[in-house]
Amino acid sequence: MASGKRRRRAWLVFGWVVPVAQVFVPKMFVNDLWAASRPEPQRRRGHPLLTAWWLSVLVAASAYTVSDASEDLKEATTTIPARDALRQIMFSCGLDLCAAALSIVVIWQLNGRLERAAARGATR
Questions:
Q1: What is the pLDDT of residues 68-120, one digit of tens each?
Q2: Burial 20-57 (b: 16+ CB within 10 A, else e)
Q3: pTM for this structure?
Q4: 20 — phi, psi (to 5°)?
Q5: What is the C-alpha to C-alpha distance for residues 12 and 29, in angstroms, rounded to an integer?
Q6: Cβ-contact 96, 60 below 8 angstroms
Q7: CB-based contacts of 15, cutoff 8 Å, min separation 6
Q8: N or C: which end of the chain has fewer CB within 10 A?
Q9: Keyword set for this entry (predicted)?
Q10: Are 91 and 63 contacting, i.e. CB atoms less than 8 angstroms apart?
Q11: Listed residue (5, 10, 48, 9) closest to 28, CA to CA
């Protein structure tokens, strides 16, 4: 394995489909890419932005799976339960938007860092 990598390529797939690994492996790969974008003496895995991004993804995913708001909305016979279900759905969508925004920022930042690292490597 190349320096800095903690997992083999097969984990790229397994990390997204194996239930327990889904919580840890994708963030490990992003941490490894983040570290690889820095010169060797400055390499450090992890960053507060990456932690915030991954926590937002996990919270948004769990808010969607835990909530039965869609089913509650279908079964609502009065306005009060319908309103409560819609609030839950809107809250879940808000969490999804936060996770999506942070995902865009992480991808943008990581892409720029990796391009700069590639340019540094090409000049050596």
A1: 877 888 888 899 988 888 888 899 999 999 999 999 999 999 999 999 988 88
A2: eeeeebbbbbbbbbbbbbeeeeeeebebeebeebbebb
A3: 0.78
A4: -70, -35
A5: 8
A6: yes
A7: 7, 21, 22, 24, 25, 26, 28, 29
A8: C
A9: Membrane, Transmembrane, Transmembrane helix
A10: yes
A11: 5
Long-range residue pairs from 70-76, CB within 8 A, at least 24 positions apart, any chain: none
Count the neighbouring beta carbons within 10 Å of the beta carbon of residue 3. 7
Q: What is the Cα–Cα distance from 118 to 25, expressed in whole angstroms?
A: 24
Using the structure block, give the residue that is written with the tokens 């840890």.
24
CB 35 within 8 Å of CB 114: no
Q: First vs last Cα of the chain: how many Å apart?
A: 22
| Interior angle at CA 36, CA 30 and CA 37, nearest 5 | 95
Q: Which two tokens stand for residue 16?
A: 């997204």
Q: Which long-range contacts (CB under 8 A, 24 or more apart) does 3-12 make?
A: 4/32, 4/35, 4/36, 4/43, 5/32, 6/32, 7/32
Q: Where are the alpha helices (DSSP H) in 67-78?
A: 69-75
